[in-house]
Each structure stands twice: as structure tokens, then as C-alpha cells.
Amino acid sequence: MKAVAAVLAALVALGVLMYVYTAPADPPAEMTEAEIAQIEAEVEQIMRGLYTSVADADVGPWMETLAEPAGPWLLDTEIGDLRETSNRFEAEYDSQVTQVLGGLEIQVDAISRTVVFVAATVQDREWHLVDGTIDRSSTAETWVFVATDDGWKLYAGQSAIFPIDEVALEG
Predict the structure, then answer these.
(1) Contact present, 27 and 34 (Cβ < 8 Å)
(2) Residue 29: exposed, middle, or buried by beta-carbon count in 10 A (0-12, 13-18, 19+)?
(3) Which residues does 1 contact at the CB level (< 8 Å), separation at least 6?
(4) C-alpha dihedral over 82, 124, 120, 80, to 10 degrees?
(5) pTM of whole model > 0.85?
(6) Structure confidence by residue, pLDDT tens digits, 46-105
(7) What span, in angstroms and rounded, lies between the C-alpha atoms of 46 and 30?
(8) Percentage of the chain modeled with pLDDT above 90
(9) Please, are residues 125 and 102 in contact by the beta-carbon 8 Å criterion?
(10) CA distances from 85 to 80, 96, 143, 163 (A)
């Protein structure tokens, strides 16, 4: 049953991603193309930095980017508070679990001057665990950033993790 729920969550995430990628995205009327490009470039740079730091087992920059208050994070089939879930990951992963992000793609869409939507996929994500184990997965994630007095902050997200079956890859 858990696998079915995970697959359903993944399908929802993929549906959202497909909609974002294929829907005609008219820029908000009050924003110029230059403003949109600047906002999207800023948030993309932040997002790439976050993926890089987490891959290097440094969760600190991620924690510093969280909005206050933080919104929800749908992680596979569990919904939790973004800050609480991040605190749990910081305790479990910081300085311990490195990652290799094969095929990281990031799409950023400015919804307004204060809200940005990010869709990110990783085709082959390797999780290098402390015991020497390497878990592999593909991931699809969506993130919402909000503008604050301290710059762009991560407000909410959704992550779907699809384990890569080694046997299936060999055959």
C-alpha cells in the first residue's frame, strides 16, 4: 500500500511538473521581461547553491534559506512542516551523507515579484551513506520561494523519490 501511495504522489508531482513545463506562461502584466529574468536568475542561483551544499553534506545553507514561518513539505507520502522536516534531515545527514546529482535540471518561473516556483529533477541521485552504502534514485521536486526583507526564502516544497533498481538498469 505504501508503494501505491508513493507512486500516486510521484504521479501528482510529475503532473505538476508537466503542467508547468507545457502550460503557456504569460508573465505577470506588471513585470517587465528584465525583472522576470533577474528574479528567475537569482532564485536559480540560490537553488543550485542549495543542491550543491546538500550534495556536499552541508545542510547549513539550506537551513539558512528557510522562510519564517515555513510552509509544508510533502516528502513522498508524508506531509510535514518544512522547517521541522529540514531539522530532522540536518540531524541525520549534515556532514555524513554526500550525494552525487547526475542530470540535475532546474526550471524557475517567477509568478510575481514576491513568489517564485521552482521545479527540479535529478535523473541519477546517489546517496553515499556513512556505512559505505550507495542508494540510487531519481527525484522530482517542486519548491516555492517567497521574497522577504532578507532576500528570497524557501517557503514550501514537494519531493518525490523514485528508487533506481540496479537489476533493472543492468538488463
Answers:
(1) no
(2) exposed
(3) none
(4) -20
(5) no
(6) 999 999 999 999 999 999 999 999 999 998 888 999 999 999 888 887 788 999 999 999
(7) 24
(8) 68
(9) yes
(10) 6, 17, 14, 20
